[in-house]
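User: We ran a pulldown and think these components assemble together. Before we commit to crystallization trials, I'd like a predicted model of the whole complex to look at. Sequences follow.
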Amino acid sequence: MNNVYYGKLIFELSRPGRIGYSIPKDHTGEEGFAALPDSVLRKSPLRLPEADEQTVARHYTNMSNNNFGVDTGFYPLGSCTMKYNPKINEEMASLPAFTQLHPAQPASTAQGALALYYETQRALSEVAGMEAFTLNPFAGAHGELTGLMVIRTYHERRGDTKRTKIIVPDSAHGTNPASAAVCGLQIVEVKSTPQGTVDVEDLKPLLGDDIAGMMMTNPNTLGIFETKIPEIAKLVHECGGLMYYDGANLNPMLGVCRPGDMGFDVMHINLHKTFSTPHGGGGPGSGPVGVRKGLEDYLPNPQVVKKSDGTFAIEYGNEALGSVSPHFGNYAIIIRAYAYLLSLGRDGIARAGKLAVLNANYIKEALKSHYLLPIEGLCKHEFVFDGLRPEYGGDHHDDAHVTTLDVAKRLLDYGFHAPTIYFPLLFHEALMIEPTETESKDTLDDFITVMKKIAEEAKSDPAFVKASPHSTPVRRLDDVRAVKDAIFRFQFD
Amino acid sequence: MAKVIEGLYYSESHEFVRIEGEFGFVGITDYAQNQLGNVVYVDMPEVDDEVTAGEEFGAVESVKAASDLISPVSGTVVEVNEALEDEPELINKDAFENWVMKVKLSDPSEVESLMDAASYEKTCE
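Assistant: Here's a predicted model for the assembly, 618 residues in total across the polymer chains.
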């Protein structure tokens, strides 16, 4: 448990003159910086916290004990794919042959590292059904932007400069319209049917010679497989647009079906979701972008290629797009994804998606007696409840009802991370659960038991649930004050 | 239950307009504030801005989500509710009283395509 004293801010633990270092005397016999000329010395001291090493160690160790991650407990955060990060990934990424690399060293001295990069490009192309991949983008949204730049450049190079609009479904992740706007494209929204998939009739009148393409996530944000993809791809292609696949929800499709086979032209993959690299807490992420045959020349530089003599080289040949990153992107993350690919192998990868779907459906069916399921039927890797059922205090016609926020807060008391809440915006009390394939049946059963217990509590003692969490290091936060009176730095007296 | 007021006009995107002579007072409905939860910021237009029916004129941000404000009427903004700058939570206290902008209407007949209280109440069920 958190130590109260060392749990204070590091600035509050500061004592004037307390230090955790000693500077040796220099060649003149003077201590510290006395030999430096006055002109380069600060006139006023920096206001840094002053503390001894032990205080610093205790402070940050106590802070880290308040953290929650996939190594601490179940993390069913919908739409985020918080799967376990196998320790062998870390072991491989910390091999000195990788950690001692410099991105600017000659290719002839880094053949192993380049082989890994090349093999990952090929493996992702195979998994996704694409012709070529770049591993340069630093994150999912960066991948989206890069992919949209590919689409834009493709049209411009053909002299087709009218295509400035991109179609995005109303259920899309917020990053889709944001990336499109950064790429200078106008966003046109297409509506969903009551079943939660793209409304093809609503799409038809939007298509024309000003459409650059359409972005889709499949399975979509509700965890539902978009069955009309072939028809949608045909319509978009007939009007001259390209199909963009947002790989945010690729996990359940692994080894079952491929975006390339569905008619998508450009896509990105989140290695920090589907390929088990760290997610959350800054990751860092990685968002490789794939393209179908004919678009390879629009991928950014650098590319790693295999030459006819079997050696690997770094190429900067693609002039159309230029670069989107210094050097190779988050190389250390790519090592982890490669380790995952090899650990699971072809058969293991193909089982991951199916187990992710099984786990999600198992929780959904077990909890729909207590939580409102707005869209019935088989889901993919995730699903959305619309809050507690009315008989468990969830009637949102009653202003005093127990909300999704209350349920999420109460879950923390039981040691689970809360699911995604109030997203997607299609429902009032959205509670979005994605267990991933890495959880055992025991963990899923434990989660189900707790979720049912919370529903019973909401019925018998709603005030107690509404006042939760009761056992976390900090209690319910004041969201309004956090936004309105945000304090971004320590306030000195 | 969300409140509706007779005599106002309502849009599908949950804005209302109260007509007084050649002016319209535009804000979000009680249902909208209830759905949004605690409002923390209102992005308002400026006086003399032109607004068009069906188009965005600002945004409202709550602890749950940020939503565009869609104008139910066309015209010129003659006043904005400056009290909302410091106290956006006034919208949660009384959404109909705390309108966002006052518009000089360029086409008063536009309100005929909006909903009355009874039909709006039905869409909120």
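The interface with chain B takes residues 397, 399, 422, 425, 428, 479-480, 483-484 of chain A (CB under 8 Å). That may be worth checking against your pulldown data before setting up trials.

User: Thanks, that helps.
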